[in-house]
Amino acid sequence: MAESLTLTVSLRGTRDVRGTYQLFRLTGLLDAFSEPAFRKVMTKYVEAGPNNIILDLATIDFVDSSGLGALVQLVKKATTEGGTVQVVTNPRVTQTVKLVRLEKFLSLQPSVEDAIAHLENPPSE
């Protein structure tokens, strides 16, 4: 059962814990205004576990540099806790991420299903 998250007026979503991962579906704006609340809430949930995170940003309208910084911090936090972060994107988010060359670091995935498959069968390096 997904629980509802209201991070700010402009950023909302749901959290669903499924076995070895948490699925977050967010909508709205991940920007300088919403970034502090996003970072605080996500840090709490990564620490609570499970520490593998799937972040569905497919319906996000806008990500700015503050939002990208928060995503980078989330990946670092999850990695420190022994987990991973998969980011499901849309064309706008993908374009922003690629502008700053973070697509590999943020492990961009085209769909939630692909992110789950990636978690269950990680590519060998």
UniProtKB/TrEMBL annotation:
STAS domain mapped to chain residues: 23-119
Cited Pfam families: STAS
- Which terms in the Gene Ontology molecular function aspect does this entry carry? anti-sigma factor antagonist activity
User: Which family is it part of?
Assistant: Belongs to the anti-sigma-factor antagonist family.
Name used for this protein in its record: Anti-sigma factor antagonist
